[in-house]
Amino acid sequence: MTDIWIMRIGHRPQRDKRVTTHVALSSRALGAKGIYVDTEDRKLEENVKSVCERFGGDFEIRTGVKWKNVVKDFDGVVVHLTMYGQRLDEALPKLPSDGRMLVIVGAEKVPPEVYERSDHNISVGNQPHSEIAALSIFLYEVTQGDSLYADRDGKLTVIPNERGKTVVEISK
């Protein structure tokens, strides 16, 4: 299994707080190990850590990191999700099935250097849509959805059912 990290570039706390939170939570749910965010945002960190404390898992979040340093120092394959990249279905066979992968997701227009520094520029469709959707589809394809119903040893767990909401508190 690939060790997947997310790099969020261009996060604007006042404008993007919900979107970046959803990028982080989708990443967590779909098997990523953690997320780097280029802008410091302690509230975002608190929110994501709170979910991890309640629902379990070892997902990490670090804000205020310089994306250039993360990309330069990353030991693995760097993937940039962009509407202008190679089709996902054509790119998937070229991606490693194990090792480390950094997935770059922009909040605003990313610098041209991101395209140049990435090993793969991949598109999930060729129409404008949400980076949350693109990341989720990408992670689902890469991980084959293995993490969606994984037990993360949390204090709370959701029991899927056709009707209603069932959240169970796990006593330890």
Rg (CA only):
16 Å
Profile the largest sheet: 6 strands, parallel
Mean pLDDT reading: 94
The SSE order reads EHEHEHEHEHEHEE
- Determine the oligomeric state from the structure: single chain
Number of strands: 8
C-alpha geometry: globular
Number of helical regions: 6
Name the poorly predicted regions: none
The rounded distance between the terminal residues' Cα atoms is 29 Å
* Helix coverage percent: 25-40%
Secondary-structure content class: alpha/beta
Strand residue percentage:
25-35%
Give an overview of the whole structure.
The protein contains six helices and eight strands, in the order βαβαβαβαβαβαββ. The protein has a six-stranded parallel sheet with strand order 3-2-1-5-4-6, sandwiched between helices. The chain has a two-stranded antiparallel ribbon with strand order 7-8. A hairpin with an 8-residue loop joins β7 and β8. α1 runs parallel beside α2 and α1 runs parallel beside α6. The model has no long low-confidence stretch (mean pLDDT 94).
